[in-house]
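Table 4 source record.
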Amino acid sequence: MSTDNIGLELIRKRNVGSGAALRGYILMMMVRPAGVYLAWLALKRGLTHRQVTFASFLFSWVIVFTAAFGGPGGAVAALVMVLFWEAVDVTDGSMARALRKRDNFGGFLDYAAGVVLIAFLPFALGMGVFLWPEGSLDAFLGSMGIAVSVPAVLSLAAGAGIAVISLLMRLVNRVLFIRFGDSFSQWDEKDRNQRMSIKELVNLLVRNLETTGGLQALIFLLAAVLGWLEIALCGYLVFYLLLLILFMRQTYQTYGRCEDYYVVEVKRRDN
């Protein structure tokens, strides 16, 4: 399909409703409108959605290395880049929908780029603080009358712990979907005019705190600007440990007595 006649209005029209799965995630909602303009610009430049996806994948690695080895200001620079990455991340999908194309491998690569940030960004932030300590955790404990010198390696361990727990919960979700045809990542979207219960609001808040496209990147960015990244990493590790305990408890309560397999018909593609 020629891209000459694809304008902003057509891109908007063909992307109506495509962001339903992202609704409620603060950062994604903030940057998603920019995806339409970036998609229009990329199409005018003759780029394909697959090229934008590759660019997003490479960009995610640039962010990780900047956070780890970018010096004292590396964390701030990397987290600002995350904001731009989120906009690029929705651009390829906007382009594909505008062209009415489906790209299964592109979707896989897009997911892989997100996994790179989930798996390595917290660890990279911890590496950066380990190499260029802030001293914020020592100052915080000192303000509470606790005169303890916290080793810098604690921030590195906290970042690694966050990454491992985040990946573990996502892996369990995938296995749940394969085994039972359902998982905690599959949740019903409520109508915008329908009032959410307290439990649903808490659930949405937790998802935002736990997701790069929610509040997590914004919190880390604020902490890095204020020089509190050590505190943020250790605080997030405590949050993730509590979340893991609740997650595994809920997993057992929901699926522990299910004995039947969820049968999925798989059609293999002949080469």
